[in-house]
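Q: Sequence in, structure out?
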Amino acid sequence: MLESGAHRGITLDSIWKWARRIVLALVAAFVVLYVGDWVVYKLRGSPQGIVKVSQTLVVPLKGNKQEYDYLGTSDVACSVSIFSQNGETACWQLRRNHNQNMNL
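A: Exactly. Output:
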């Protein structure tokens, strides 16, 4: 015979409690990572890099069609950090997505 409170099954309340804990831990980890990235970025003197990017102009046409006009390559300034800083995209993101489309 089990004493009261000796064995409890999984209840919806306990699932929500664990879900809240996990979400709060993930949010806290993201905030710590972002603030840490910003601090390191500022301590290093706001380092910037340059990445060559291919640019394409997307022109809408009749009938839901689009025309792609190649504009060439250009050097784009980027931040040497994990996240975008000072309004500049992180260098690793530009290197990974070096083709940029601009809509007209």
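The radius of gyration is 24 Å.
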